[in-house]
Amino acid sequence: MWLLNHSALRRFELDQLRRAGVTRVFTPKRFPYDEGNLSASVDAALDDALDLASEDLARLNAQDWYACEDAAAWEIANRYFRIAFIGFFPRQIETVLAHFDGTIVIRVFGLASGETYSALLREHLSLSTRIRLRERASRVWFGTAYSHLKDVEERYFVEHECFLPVGVLGDDKMADWHGSDARVLFVCPRIGTTPYFRGIYDNFKREFGHLPHVIGGAQPIAVPDPAVIGYVPREAHERNMRELRVMYYHSRERNHVHYHPLEAIQAGMPLVYVGGGMLDELGGRSLPGRCRSTTEARAKIERLLEGDRRLIDRIRKTQGALLEPLLAERCAPTWQQGFARIVASVKLRAPRSARASRIAVIVPVGYRGGSLRGAKLLAQALVEGSRQAGQPADVVLAHLDDKGVYTDDEFKDLPAHVRRRPYRWKTLSREEAVRALAYAGVDANLHESAYAIPDDGATNFDDCDLWLIVSDRVSIPLLPVKPYVMMVYDYLQRYEDFLDLPTSHAFLRAQHAAERVLVTTDFTYADARDFAGLPLRKLRRVPMLVPQFDATPDASATPDKPLPPYFIWTTNLALHKNHHNAASALAIYYDELGGRWSCKVTGVESDRIPTSELPHLKPVREIRARSRGFRRNVEFMGELHERAYRRLLAGGRFLWHAGRVDNGTFSVVEAAHAGLPALSSDYPAMREIAATNSLAIAWMDPHDPEQMASQLKAMEARADALRAQVPDSATLEANGVERHAAAYWREVRECL
Amino acid sequence: MPVSRFGIYLAYGATVDMRAEGLGRLFAALLMAAAKRDDIRFVIACPSWTRESLMQLCESEGIPTTAFDVLSPARKPALLRLYEHWRRRGRRRRRRARWFGLYMARAGALVQRALFPWRRRLITTRSMAPVLAVGMLVAVVAALIVPFVVLGSALRRGGGRVWSKLQKLALRGWLAMAGKDVRRAAGDILAGRAPKDVPTVVSLYRQMEEAELDVLHRMIERAGDVSAWYCPTAFWPSVSKLDRPRLICVPDVLLSDFAASFSAIGGDRMLETFRQIERVIADGQHFVTYSAHVKNETLVRRFGVAPDAVDVIPHGAVRLEPLITIVGTPDQRAATEAFCHDVVASAVRTSLTPLRVGALGEATRFLFYASQFRPQKNVVNLLRACEHLLRRRFVSCKLVLTGNPDLSPEIGECLSRLRLQEEVLFLQRLSSQQLAACYRLAALAINPSLFEGGLPFTFSEAVSVGTPAVMARIPVTLDAIRDEELREWMLFDPYDWKDMAARIEWALANRDMLLQRQRAYFDTTIAPRSWDHVLDEHVAILRRIGTERTAAPA
């Protein structure tokens, strides 16, 4: 597969491949349409020779091979092709490394001085890709266009370098040149779109603008300068090469030479160039066209424009030496030798590891209740999903090693095939982090002063292939030693004032460093895209994993006589639970609207609500003190055991969810399992939960206590009707782990 | 063909960058139109300190500098040059330090390389003799050199102190001769106070400015073939001294329309500016403005100008798409979008410091309001609307503004109070291309301004690059947008932030439909009026008044 679209390069390299006996070469039929790709084109001439099934070929041709993640296309590619030539495009490198089983040749043509490919790999490739580069080193090559490019590179690059010179094709047209047009030709594309070229243009105008000149090069955006001719048709271009008096080449880059000065030499046009660049390396140090400075260049150009025949002839007669090392026929043997090395390495390909993947599902803080349940469901989904895909994986659930937070009871419901592993967070200094990465063989830039790593007292989860962090609550950057995925449930800090900016920024940084961020609602997806600014290629929406609740009524707890009617308010101490408005609504409901149903308040630490000193809970105390109805009818029960809670649900009339905003609560699903409808705050994530689970929910505005109270009163008349709409168990169980596990495994698998 | 010469009078202050001024962009549009004409030629008269900014404006807008003549004193006043030199000292010091550092590093590396073989020999030798010999040599050399090094270092330190003391003495002496006021002013400036806030400095500057303008006026007098002069603003009372027909542009007089709001800004300096505007209007004879509303309400009713002394020339359409549309690829739309992403990302990197990761992601949905922060710009109501949209209506999008929040404490306070620090980004000093790219990528452009001199540029700037706009229902906009249904779709009550929020929410949900409608209106009604038309109308007025002789006011 020759996965590039540069027209001139394609002509040369396909010819070389043909000479090497490679008759079947696939070339891409799409490429990124950006302003830097104006030299690109598509060539379908070799498709017939591929001899592929037409639907396979169609699938290959439909892909964008610069960022292809189509599994079926890669399956076809792996079936038919052994070698892939690609460009140094981070996205392309990532996708090809992730999906292609054959040998990869990354073509490189030189960078501006001060830059190296090694540094760019570190900066632009994800951690998982860099790890793959290391693990699959035996089938990665850097195909350098110039032999000296490796001189500034690091060991990995040098050890995998293969010199594949780029030859210049085309006929010698020296004799055709006339030079009747006394102007300088300067090639500077993309003036209006790239500051780099704009700077070159400005410099040229400053130094040479007073001389008659023409500026060539494709201009994606028009430049208001009559001297800038932009793209011209072939005939006009050939005329320019034939008639313009001289070309000036400005570049002092050691590691790169543009095509146009070579084209000028081929056309016989005198080339005046500044020394210190690649042309010196090609043998141009002492040629008459070489200049030590722009002043000298200006002087020579003026002479040429005045018609200095001797200088013209001297330059023309000698400049062919620059082209010599680059002629296609001259480069071919070296190219063939390099390619032979690559071909030989294809036979030495190492088999893929058959070891089962191991994934750590890490709970980064002391979550309990619904959040811990979510982590367990995630672990279960990965086990189930990997099993369904025929790629069974080991899953470890990692939690804080803190007996004050977690007892063994918390994990009784953990599936047997998910292992538990407690850990503590350990902080490494930057120096320690540098050493740790060196020992681990991971290449990464470290900018922070400290890094965190989960310390399990053994391998720090180094035995795992991937970490899945449940939530983004990582305030110190993770040591980039293992790729990780984040499960982010919400961006509450966008809506509620509980998190300081530095901490919020730390959480966001952790997300940006992740391989992927998973969210479960469209609401959180929008927050991730807009608030966190995550790129879409990293962001994935996965289905909600709805817990399976046991709705079996507890026969032993049937009360002797029916209880007065009540509804259940599930809550906790968190700011976004909207206690003030809820309490106000209850007071109005009882004192002004004559509410008849009492309210049972449950949830983690909910019994502390009336006495808590937290600022956002103080109003509840005040309301309770002044509202008789509230005092008589509202009972704060605290956290109930599962059985007790089920009993409570069974006897209730509806569940009341009064929180302002979050990623939604499954308490309404649990209530539905018990046949209970719900009255809920109206916000997007709750609407999504209701729609996904076909729930019977009445809605209220959590910012308006009056409206909340009137909805509570309305439920006295509506609850029975809503109860009839509560879905049956089969419907409620449709969104369990079994159904959605594959989606989770798919996302995680792509990061392994 | 005979060429008519008209003058453009500029009297910007010494530190003004025309590229950052709204007037600058209007001015650039006129010059671009004039560059295409063979029958007219503009002569731009400006102080010496404005010439560089003028050339920078031309470069950034692509205006050929050969398209007009410049009348300007050849050199800046010496004291101004000295002041600018002093301001650049930090940069010079850093540059020197950087070069010195590079030089020392290189020199050190060369020395290391030269010594390396000898060091290696010393480390690996088995014989004691070379070690002893080198040791003795080092001791002798040290004994000889160290005293000189110590003396040299002491001299350098002492010399540095002496030089510094001499500089301070010279400065003190000069300041003593210059007077107590100047001494106090210098002290204030050295202590970090902005020169424009130091009364003595302002006074000295005014004298310098007056002298500069006197020179400029003499040059204008000598340019006898310029039949009439155009002044793009009423801020410069010196224009009244021109003994030539003058056309004064009065875009607006915001100080009178927002009297209380502006009273808290700029102190008495602003009052003095207002007095200057009053004088210019009182002394003027020919005026031009952008809308009938400003003509009637501001010039005629508020300042008593005769209606037939005022012409109305509405703006031309501002089209930004040539700055960002990529041609030459099979998919122009995709290429343009990719390019705009790069441009905006670059603007974010340079504008936001410190840069928070993901502040404006490649897919982040955002609203865009391009404007400086002034009381009439109604930014606080816009912030209220955005907060409501985010936290009550759960409409997810950020807000990108182009003003400087440091100059507006009210906006900073509102931002904090509404907790929108993470939702609002300030991209300042955008180039025209960056502005175009921001418009292109925005979900919606907004203009909540309570007052503008003409149809806000927002409409044509946004729609020309394919982004719909919602705007305040103000007279100048109603004047330009005559379609009733389109008004319903795109206009809101600027005094009612809830109405603003509702309009934004509706526009986001119906973006394509709104854009289609606006695009059609733009193509048929707004776009046909180009800056060539605007120039024609200005030239017609200048020709008309050029036949009159006007005496300077007593």
Summarize the structure.
With 752 residues, chain A is an alpha/beta fold.
How are the SSEs ordered, and which strands pair?
The complex is a heterodimer of chains A (752) and B (554).
Chain A: H1 7-19, H2 47-50, H3 54-62, H4 71-80, E1 83-87, H5 90-99, E2 103-108, H6 117-124, H7 127-135, E3 140-144, H8 155-159, E4 161-163, E5 181-187, H9 195-208, E6 213-216, E7 228-230, H10 234-243, E8 244-249, H11 260-267, E9 271-274, H12 278-284, E10 290-291, H13 294-305, H14 309-318, H15 320-323, H16 328-346, E11 358-362, H17 369-388, E12 394-400, E13 418-429, H18 430-440, E14 450-455, E15 466-470, E16 484-487, H19 501-513, E17 516-519, H20 522-530, E18 539-541, E19 566-570, H21 579-591, E20 598-602, H22 618-626, H23 628-633, E21 634-638, H24 642-651, E22 655-657, H25 667-673, E23 678-681, H26 684-693, E24 697-700, H27 705-724, H28 729-732, H29 737-749
Helix pairs in contact in A: 1-16, 17-29, 21-22, 21-27
Chain B: E1 4-9, H1 22-35, E2 40-45, H2 51-61, E3 68-71, H3 78-87, H4 89-124, H5 128-178, H6 180-190, H7 199-222, E4 226-231, E5 246-249, H8 254-257, H9 259-263, H10 267-283, E6 287-289, H11 292-302, E7 310-312, H12 321-324, H13 332-351, E8 366-369, H14 379-391, E9 398-401, H15 409-417, E10 424-426, H16 432-441, E11 444-447, H17 457-464, E12 469-472, H18 475-480, H19 484-490, E13 491-492, H20 497-509, H21 511-526, H22 531-546
